[in-house]
Each structure stands twice: as C-alpha cells, then as structure tokens.
Design a protein that fits this description.
binds uridine-5'-diphosphate, pyrimidine biosynthesis
Amino acid sequence: DTAEGAGRRVLLKLSGEAFAGGGGVGVDPDVVQAIARQIAEVVRGGTQMAVVIGGGNFFRGAELQVRGMDRARSDYMGMLGTVMNCLALQDFLEKQGIDTRVQTAITMGQVAEPYIPLRAQRHLEKGRVVIFGAGMGMPYFSTDTTAAQRALEIHAEVLLLAKSGVDGVYDSDPKTNPDAVRFDSLDYSEVLKRNLKVADATAISLCMDNDLPIVVFELLTEGNIARAVRGEKIGTVVGR
Ligand code: UDP
C-alpha cells in the first residue's frame, strides 16, 4: 500500500501539456483535480513530494523563437506560464486538504514564495507539497532540467517524470509506429546516444552525472503516481 512510500522524498515532474486536457492550451480544472487527488493519496501515505510543472500548455520559448520572437524573452513567457499551472495545482491540492507552498525562481511575492531550498525542505518535512514554478528562472533551460536540479538540491531519491499520453520510453514514436517497443529500463548513455525522447540532453546528463534515477510513466491513469512511488514496474526506469 502507500505506506511503502512513507518517509521517502520524491520529485514529481508534470508536463504542462497534461494540464490542458484535450484542449491543447490553458488549464482543464477536471484534469488538475484528478492529478491533485493522485498526489494527495501519496502524500497522505507519508511520502514527501515536491513538484515541478512545465508550461507547454501556454508557451514554449523555442516555438515562439521559430515565429520570430527573441528566444530569451519568449523563454521568460514560458516560465511565467508554468506559474499559472502551479497555482492551479495548489488550489486543487488545498481543496484535498493538503498543505502546499509554491516557490518560484522568478520572485513574485504576492503569489508565491521565492525559491529557498532549505525552506522547501522544511516544508516537505512538515508534510507540505512544495510546487516549484518558473523553471530555473533562466532562459535556454527546460522544466525537465529544473526538475533534475531541484530533485538533486532537495535530496529527492528519484525523479518521477510523468507524461500524458505515453506510458514510458519507446525505441521509436508509438504514435506513428505500431511496432514501437517500450523499454523496461535504460542506461542514461543509451538515452543520449539514441536521442530518445525522454527529456532534453541537459536534464539527462545532470541525472547521469549525479546518479539520480528517473521513472517515466503515464500520468493520467488513476493511481499511477502512487504506483511509481512504490516502485511498481509501470513505465521505464532510466538509470545505470
Ligand atoms: N523555460 C525556461 N527556463 C527554464 C524552464 C522553462 O526558459 O528553466 C521556458 C522554456 O521556454 C520552455 C517553457 O518555459 O519551453 C515551458 O517549459 P517546458 O517546455 O519545459 O514545459 P513542458 O514541455 O514540460 O510542458
């Protein structure tokens, strides 16, 4: 049961895309509520959980760059988008009776605490969910890299990389290739060498250099976050 996860500290990365539901853009409250329910279940079982959320449901800097925008400025738009997702998750977690704090890498005192790693760890010890927003606060980085960095800094034992619509890492795109094969486990170097679409290379190499295991799994299946925390084989483990 979830008691198996008690006392553990994990970092959960949620893609922004998931928050949009079928809509593609913006936040679908039903989806966020379902995610919050899953997280609440795990936290009630005694697992300490920090969360990093992407912003792909609002803006991706690289996509705006292609359309002619300055990359750094559009990356800041991307980072600000992640904060809206953080507030949505915070709201639904609080409705589940879970205490939360949002900490952002770009300070915005009215809506969130600044990112203070020691304080984040104190929150976690008290059973609060800490939601990290605004990525690293730096253009040219991704929220996957942020997730790896935050996991390392707060001493999480694993990075849970939750995806919407795909249940692990495949040797080719399962949406276009019906013969695509899912890996149960993978070495970091294999991910980099084969350019597998797990996370960007910066995030993967940061995990590799610091031996942080990554579990890639499907987010929206009810109970999957708890399964990933318990170490059930529901997706792909990237490690060595
Ligand atoms: N971003 C950034 N620095 C960071 C994190 C994010 O510049 O440290 C920007 C970047 O433009 C990125 C966008 O925020 O495209 C949204 O994050 P991401 O694409 O990682 O979201 P996801 O794909 O996980 O939804």
